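Subject: two folds for Thursday's group meeting

Dear M.,

Sorry for the delay on this. The cluster queue was jammed most of the week, so I only got both jobs back this morning. I'm pasting them in the order they finished. Each block is the input sequence followed by the predicted structure tokens. Could you check whether the formatting survives your parser before we put anything on slides? The first protein is the one we discussed after the seminar.
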Amino acid sequence: MTIEMIFVLIMVFAMLVALLFEIARPDMIVFSVLITFLVTGILNTEEALKGFSNQGMLTIALLFIVAGAVQKSGIINQIMGKWLINSNSVKGALLRFFIPIAFFSSFLNNTPIVVTFTPILKKWCEERNIAPSKVLIPLSYVTILGGTITLMGTSTNLVVHGLLLDYGFEGFSLFQLSIVGIPITIAGLIYLFTFGFKLLPEQKGFSQQVKEDSREYIAEMKVQSTFRYVNKSVQIAGLRDLKGLYLIEIIRGKDRLSPVRSSTIIKADDRLIFTGLIATIADLQKINGLTLETGTSVELDDLRNGTNQLVEAVVSHQSSLVYKSIKKSQFRLRYDAGVIAVHRNTERIKSKVGDIVLKPGDTLLLLAGSDFVEKYQQSDDFYVVSSLKTPESLKENTVKGWFSLGLFILLIISVGFGLLTMFKAMAIVVLILMITKVISAVEAQKYIQFPVLLLIASSFSIGTAITKTGLAQLIAEGILRLGQPFGLIITLLFIYMLTNLFTELITNSAAAVLMLPIGLEMAENLQVDPMGFAVLIAIAASASFITPIGYQTNLIVYGPGGYKYLDYVKVGTPLSIIVMFISVFIINNVWF
């Protein structure tokens, strides 16, 4: 091994560890490694920037805009919502709901699909006294499986496609992956309807638990005329930095002041509503002029009026809130919303709300304004997954909605018949959407997930470094030495399992970029069709079922479903094994 090869190996290993332990945002970790390779001369400037001009990466950027325009219309949401209402049994809903969802996710970005339909499914479950945990993991898994059916079904497929073009291959056709994607989707649906359904836990979502146990989380103090800070601000009264407590609302006669600001004036007879670590309520009782109201009738459902609503949001991997405390991130100032509670691993964190350091996957229960969902549904900071009513942005002009959907169908037809490349078709559709003012430039910018693009573009260059230094060939030869004595099919299983391990621990796109150079080297050594290895790696990188962190959709349903980490292991492991054996069997027989 050369010094360069050893250095790249150490840096890639350090990157994987950093991603696994989530020491920073994934895009910043991978970008930092890219900069290190550039500064040390492992990559030149052209090689380092190659990923930022890659056709696959740019296609993903355009796909975000097109999918955003279709989602904006709300037509698909309305159709699926009405379709679901007609089902009264859980398995009837699965049959009626998830089969179309698998179809839609093969053409649309699966992340907004899960974000959109999580609250619809939760509401349906709550109305029928069914545990949301029985349907939310299947929602994530079905969208992942559906995404393997076409080239545009997931960003991972487009990443591998872009890399193949860079290496001089033709890349994937629109339906080439369907050879594997359709069988594994059907097998996955059968598993989730039968054995997998029995393995799913039966527990209530976080917001339901908090509502039912609201007395544990809500405390009410009444301001007496003897309180020394009457007619003074909340900040002067010292009610902003109480140990284990957080002032979320002031009730003044028939008026409700929420969120409470530092400058809000306290008046006699105000009722102060606190949340947080209620075990420290005794500290408030020591303050002269504040009396604890026992037997209060105030509940979470009462904490909203015409201008407020209860919202559940999941912190994303790309969030600027990650690894900051709620207080330091100035959450209330930025979003005009108060944090009622924070949920992590099915446990309400027992510490002062403002001091909680947020992590990816944390679920926030928010008391927010009526326009919160509409304003932040495209935010990189979190996925808004639950609200009390449909966002106004989902009630757009019906004509524009059908126009967007019609353009999208034409895009699929033109690419499917080879009339246009995926990139050209996407570019034309985005241009038409902008000219016809179906979406504005500002909306288009909001739809693009820039942290995801930075992660993918940086990963391309990391893959270049692995190939350039010979590390990919070395790893490929090592895997061949292990698997070749047992035959090609065992070698394929090794590649699949290694790719799948990476995607469970880090991210799907990064796993695909790291493994494709190794797969192509193996194909060259074995003198077989490299497209078979490309398909194998694309499927394995997407098939993340065992952990909540490997795929965004798993993370989105983690908190709302009230899941534990082991729930994914228990339900996802059999599915992962089923998908692996079907994929390897088909690829071995079709391409080799």
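Second protein, same layout:
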Amino acid sequence: MSNMSQHDRAKRIRPAATLALVRDGETGLEVLLLQRTWQAAFLPGYHVFPGGAVDAGDADLRALVEGRDDGETSQVLSLDEGGVDYMIAALRECLEEAGILLARDAEGALPTGRHPVLAEGREALRREQTSFGALCEHHGLRLPLDRLAHLGRWVTPPGPPRRFDTHFFVALAPPGQGVVPDGSEIIDHAWISVAHALQAHRRGEMALSYPTLRTLRLIGDFPTAEALLRHGHANPPTPRPGRPWPAQRQGEACQVEPDAPAYAEVRRLDPNRHATASAEIVPGRAVTLAPGVIRVSAPNPGAMTGPGTNSYLLGDGREHLVIDPGPEDPGHLERLLALADGHISHVLVTHTHIDHSPGAAWLKARTGARLVGLPPPVGAGQDAAFVPDYRPRNGERIATAAGTLKVLHTPGHASNHLCYLLESQRLLFSGDQVMQGSTVVINPPDGDMAAYITALSALGEEDFDTIAPGHGFLIGEAHGAIDFLITHRLAREHKVRLALSRHGPASLETLTRLAYDDVPEAKQGLATRSALAHLLKLEAEERAVQSESGWASGEALSSLVY
């Protein structure tokens, strides 16, 4: 008998497989997305690729596969063995959910039209009246695994109650087979171009999870199905980092797990695994992140600032500039001056919240540095004393000794928020636009949820691979982090919309408790501000209305589909 508790079983990472079916449409490459039922415990209402967990019985079908053996497939998937089981699971799930089967009969033909395996056979499989193996044997079908190409792998990060280790495959949709959603797990489908899917996602009309977004972006790089499959067969994806990385913490050697906050940073700073990078943020410590780029964290840790505000010093021995000097803390600012040998020509701020910009005036008084940024808006928590000498424009480039910085106006968290992209290093200084391990607060009236999501989407079009945030360590898989933030916000917005439709008119406080039922009581105050930001966005889109009775939906519950 197993000693694994129910909690441990819930936390166990389950092997899973997903199959992206593609075809060449009239306007270019199209991909099949299935919409999950709103009653699903996992990703309700989301559009996904066909797929699901690997079953123990999938291994029994190894005798029915052709085109690849388990040794070859496992090598491609970076597994010791069992690689074909993932492909078999992907084909089985595609039949169950979408009514499409990639299989060959004795003459090498694919099932078409109303082939019994696609109709009665599929229904018997869904009702568990037969197995996938028995179904294939009864109809004399074999599984051509050489039609599938491997696109990547995604392991659910720690935290969610359900975690999956999922391999993503791609295949050309078989001609002559129509998509028939099963009507229980899957309620709708769409053949759609990647560009249209991403646009629908950004508008909040199609919910897509981060792994789906990442795969769509890869697919979207190719003009035709043939080009995509040729790439997939010839270029197996790089295995996801799965082993701990050696580092230092409090002067002693340690191992940093792949999902730990410091992982991307210690890998970047110590690629040869010499345990020289630090896995902790210490106020005042100078950390060289790239040639001519140093981070120094201010001693202002807290619930809203994490380990402290990060100040970045860019330059060389002759000239330096500072991004986000932080609060007016003399010790922190003296440290920046010392590292710059007293030569600071410019101070750039991402925004004027009091944990980011007050040190700018202090540095200007000591060095004569020019202050660069946008004026503070009216409101609490703003550094009203900040007066910029220069107001940069969106898209403008600023020359520095460390390379060219591209200015990106990113309103949402604050109306005057800027990000700075060091193009030569593909390094984005994100201020509070993207934070590590924390949701960015969107606090109306200056905070604007619609502007925030739009700015995140625009950032996703820029060329960078690492984010240097205003608080915390470097963030790797930068575009994935942005996709995750957009997905998180739109998923929360949908909960707000459902609460409106089912319980409105209702007060802001009531809607917050319903839409943020997973947020601890201690954080309900902040959740209320975020809920208001979502409601104001929905009001501007005519999907919510406010009256003396409270907030109500501007749309019917039946219309809440993506």
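Two things I noticed about the second structure. The first strand starts at residue 13 and ends at 25. Residues 1-10, 557-562 have pLDDT under 50 and may be disordered.

Cheers,
T.
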